[in-house]
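Response to reviewer comment R2.3. The reviewers asked that we include at least one raw input/output pair. We reproduce the pair for N,N-dimethylformamidase beta subunit-like C-terminal domain-containing protein here without editing.
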Amino acid sequence: MRRLVDHGAMSAAGYATPWSVRPGQRVELCLSCSQSIKSVRICQLDTQAADFVNWPIEATSEPDAHRSFDQGSYLRLRAEELAKGPAIKGIRFELLLTRNMGPRTILEAGSFLLSLRDGAIALETRNDRLFTAQVPQGIWLTVELGLHGDEPFFKLKSHDLLAPYEFKRRLRDAEWHPQGTDILFGASSSRSKLTLNARFAAIRLETSQGPIAWDFPTLLPTGPILSSGGPVALALDAINQPTFCVTSARWDGSSFDPRLVPSHYDALHCHDDDMGPLDWPASHRAAVPENAEPGVYAFQVEWDGGNERIVFFVTSAHASSPLLYLLPTATYLAYADEYLPDHLYEWKCDDRGHRFAIANSLKSLYDYHSDLSGVSICSYRKPKVTLRDDYNYPLCGCPHNLPVDLHFLRFCNENGIALDIVTDHDLHRQGIEALRGHRAVVTGSHPEYMSTEMEGALRQFAAEGGSIAYLGGNGFAGTVAFKDDLMELRRSPLESGRTWDGPISEQHLSITNEPGGHLRSRGRGEFSLVGGAISLMGFDGARPFTRTPESHAPECAWLFEGIEDETFGSEGIVLGAAAGYEVDATNTALGTSADTIVIARATDFAASFFQDPSRWYEGGDEERAGRRCAEMTLRNLAAGGLIFSASSVAWCGALPAGKAMNDAGRITLNLLNHLSARQKQEANSEAGRSIP
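Raw output as returned:
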C-alpha cells in the first residue's frame, strides 16, 4: 500500500546513508518533511554542548519534499518476464492465510482477481463476480486457477487431514487472459489497499511447453528469485522484505534446522506492514573531513520554529587510543521505531518518535506484525525516529540507549579520556581486525544484540590479552545477523516478557541459516564471556551498589581508589541510581567462570522488577528471592587482560555531568585509566627491553 508519510508527530524524519562512515567519506541525508526547510547543519552530539561542525554540505538536485513509502510485502511476476515464456495454461500455489481485517487481494492475474474479505474468497473477472466461498484460515491450502480443455476452472484444497476442505468450480463463460499484465500474489496493481497477510509456497505456472516453478530458498535472496526447470527461467520479485526461512506444508517436525531439510522451509511470509529499505533520494550530502573526530553526529534539519536531528556515526580511521568504544548500533536498530501502543503499556512520559511510529505503522524488532507474527528483519535505510539525543523511553520516563551512551561519551570528553570509535556493524564486518591495536574494548549501556562474528571477535581479543569494559546490562544476549543495511533477529520462546516469541521451528535466521535466539544457547554469550546475564527488569526506581568483602582484595581494590563509602551509585539519569532498568547477576550453573569476582551488589529492588524465569534455583523460592540482585564483577584473565561488568543498563547514567564528580564517575575513571596506563607500562617495558 502506497502511503504519504504522516508528519503529525514530527515535521521531519529521515535517515543517513551509509549509517557509519570514516573520515574522508561522504554521508547523505534522505529526508521527508512537511515544513519548508531553512537550513541543514552537522552537529556533533557527544560533546557537552552538542557542537556544530563546519563540514562541507551540499544540496543535491533533489529538493526537500514530503515523501511517501510502500508498505506491505507481496510477490510479482512482471509482464515483461511473462512475455519471455510460452502461453500460460494455469497458475498453482500454496497459501496459508493468517489474520486479515478488511478486503485483501490474494491473486491478480490478467482478467482474474481472487480476493479475501471476512473469511470468504471471491473470484471476479472484469467486474463480474463468479463466486464467493468461505475459506479456512491458518492451514495450508493449494490454490489452482487454470484451463480444463478450453474452459477455466478454480480449485481450492486443504493439506490438513483433520480439517479437510475442497472447493471446485468450473468458470463457464469466463475469459482466460493471464498474460499481458503483471501477476501479483498478495496485492493489487492499484496498491490502494492493504496487502495480504499470508504465507506463500510452491508457485507454479502451467504452460503450453511444461511447468515453470519457484521453490523459495531458505537463505534471503539478493534479488529476484529464478524459476527452476521448465522451458525458460523467469524471475519472481519478492517486494518489500517478506520473511523467508519459514515452515511450509512440508514441515513435519522431524527437524528444526532448514540446512538439513530445506524443503520443509520453502515458504515465505508476507505482512501488510512489512517495510524494506527505502529509496528516498538524498537531498543533502556532507563530506566528512580527513581530520574529523570519531563520534556520534547528526544532520540538524531546521525550519522556522523547530528542528530534528538525523543521527549517523563517524568511526576511527586507525588506532590512536588504547581504548576502543563499541557503539551498540545493533541494539539501536533493534529498538528503533518501537511501537509501544499506550493501551497495552503504561507510558511514564510522552515521546514524539513513538507517536510517529504508531501513525506510520513503523515497527521495531520488539513488535508484532498485524497478524501477530513477530517482526524479525529491519533496515537502517528508513527513519529511526526514537534514535535521538533528546529521547526519553516511555516505559521508564528517562533516557535509554543513545542518550545514555552520549552521557558516557560526554563524561569521557570532559575528563580527558580519549576513545577510538567502532560500531557493531563495523565489528561484524571486520572481525578481530577492528579491535587490534587497542588494549581494551569499552561497551555502551545496552549492548544486547550481537552477531556470532562480533562475539567471536571479542572472545579472541580477550584471549590475545585484550580487556573488555562492559559498562551496561543485559548485554551479549541475542543473536543477530547482518546483510548490507539489513539486520535480522529471531527470538527464542525463552525470551519471556513484553516481546514476541517465535516458534522453535523458526529460530534460524534467513540471512545465514544459523540458529537465532540466545547466544548462551549455543555456548556463547553473557555468562561465559562477561560473567553474568540479565536477572531483573523493571521500570521503577533503580538501586545503589554496595561493595562486597572480595572487592577489598589487592587485585580489585585499585578500582575503588578514592571511594570512601561502601555504598555508591545513589544518583543517575536512568531511574535515579546506578543499578536499574535491566541488571545482570552471575550463575555458575549457566556458565559464569569460577574466577569471576563479585565486587559489588545491588539489592532491595521493587517487587515490580521482573525476575528471569529461565533460571532454576535448587533452594527454591527462598534462594530465588535472595538472587533478586545486580552483581558487578571483575575477572582477571590468564592472557593478561581483564573483564569488568557494570551489570546495569543504568550504570552510565549514574556518571556525573559537566565538571561534577561522584563515586560512579571515580570508579569508571579508575577503570579506564587503569586500562590505558597498563598499555603505556607495557609499551615502556617493551622499549626498555629493546635497548642494548
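The chain is about 15% helix and 35% strand. The longest helix spans residues 663-689. Further pairs are available on request from the corresponding author.
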